[in-house]
Amino acid sequence: MTRYTIASSRRWTPSTMELPRTTSLLCRYNHCRHSFFLINHSLAFISYQINTGLSNRVKRLNPAWNDKDKSTDARFEEAIKLTGSELVSKIDFYKNAWLPARTLVEQAIHNRHQVDPSGEIVRFTVGGCPWQDHVFQIERERQLEPNIKFAIYEDDNGQWRVQAVPVSQGSFASRLPLPEAWRGLNTDVLSGISGIPGCVFCHHSGFIGGNSSYEGALQMARFTLQMAAASITPADHQEVKNL
């Protein structure tokens, strides 16, 4: 992503605008930029207000207090188009992507004990499907215990992802994140720390990791389950790795 600031894009500097106003405006800009960053990096659970939703976008179509043109007819039409396109997009997604994924998730949950005896790991035959809603719904419908902790699937590059199930739909917190000692590491360093060959990365929040093979991704999920079952702390990680 290209870095740019209000100062560079608008040619604003403290010499052309009062410093307090510049500072205040830059704070608002940084708030918006940080919101995008937190969403992109699955860190929005941090105490931070996200204000880029549909209602906020519609609200910003209203005339500003100092606009000379206060007419709202054209702005109202623009709001209708914005909300209408959002609704059509959602309906299309639910009909053509979300609903068909239910079958894949049902199959994965049915076969979960073939993936791991714990029943806490599922493997999706197709990567990229919207699975989280369905997992939560099927867990409630079937009263599954224990609940599912990890989903494993192949990405578009032929590598395998191990993704932690969130505590609830839309949450950035995981039921069981990947070990703290792995987070932010990648490739050979991660493989060395974990003792699992083929590691690609582990996200710094622990909600997702990658491996070059299915077996490696499965090992990453299983190891995390073992650590949780034994209540292993990061200091004990090396000892467990050598078991």
How many β-strand stretches?
5
What portion of residues belong to β-strands?
5-15%
Overall, the morphology is elongated
- Percent helix: 40-55%
Short overview:
The protein is an alpha+beta fold and 243 residues long. Helix content is 47%, strand content 9%.
Protein model, in words:
By secondary structure, this protein is of the alpha+beta class. 47% of the residues lie in helices and 9% in strands. It has 9 helices and 5 strands. A 5-stranded mixed beta sheet has the order 1-2-3-5-4. The relative contact order is 0.08.
Notable features of this structure?
single chain; 243 residues; alpha+beta; five-stranded mixed beta sheet
Describe the protein's topology:
Layout: H1 6-10, H2 19-40, H3 54-59, H4 73-110, H5 112-115, E1 121-123, H6 132-142, E2 150-154, E3 160-164, H7 187-194, E4 199-202, E5 208-211, H8 214-229, H9 237-241
Parallel strand pairs: 1-2
Antiparallel strand pairs: 2-3, 3-5, 4-5
